[in-house]
Amino acid sequence: MTELKTEGGGAVYIADEVLTTIAGTAALEAEGVAGLAGYFSEAKNKTLRKHVSRGVQVRVSGQKVGLVLAITAKMGTKLHKISADVQSRVKSAIETMTGLTVAEVNVTVSAVVAEEVKE
C-alpha cells in the first residue's frame, strides 16, 4: 500500500494492485501493443480483462513509483516507438490519477505476434 500525502486530516492509501491496473490499462491504449504478459487486449472475455495488471510490476518508495512492464507487440510495428509511447502513457496516467511521481517506466518487449487476418 502506498500512503498519499494529503492536506486534510486522515490518510489515503492506494493498493499496489490499483497502480498496476492503471499502468496496464494505459499501456494497452498504445497503438501497436497487442497485450501484456499473460493478457491480450483483444480478449472479449471479462474474466480475462480483469487481469490487466499481469505483466506489470510496481515499486514504491515514498512518493516515487518505479514500474516494469512486459508487453507483446504487433508484428510490423516500430518497437522503439511503441515502448516510448507506453512509457509516456503510463507515466501520465499514474501521475494524473494518484499525484505520485513516476521515477521510471521500464518496458520489455517480451513477444511479437502477427495480427489476425479477418475474412
Topology:
Layout: E1 2-4, E2 12-14, H1 16-28, E3 33-36, E4 39-40, H2 46-49, E5 56-61, E6 64-74, H3 79-98, E7 101-113
Parallel strand pairs: 6-7
Antiparallel strand pairs: 1-2, 3-4, 3-6, 5-6
- Total count of domains: 1
The CATH superfamily is identified as Cation efflux protein, cytoplasmic domain
Total strands: the figure is 7
* H/E element order: EEHEEHEEHE
- CATH class division: Alpha Beta
Strand content: 35-45%
**Kindly state the mean pLDDT as a whole number?**
84
Overall helicity:
25-40%
Largest sheet: 5 strands, mixed
For the termini, the CA-CA separation is 47 Å
Enumerate how many helices there are, as a single number.
3
Query: What structural category do the secondary elements indicate?
Result: alpha+beta
Radius of gyration: 15 Å
Shape: elongated
CATH topology label: Alpha-Beta Plaits
Low-confidence stretches: 39-49
Please give a quick description of this structure.
With 119 residues, the protein is of the alpha+beta class. The protein has helices spanning 16-28, 46-49, 79-98, and strands at 2-4, 12-14, 33-36, 39-40, 56-61, 64-74, 101-113.
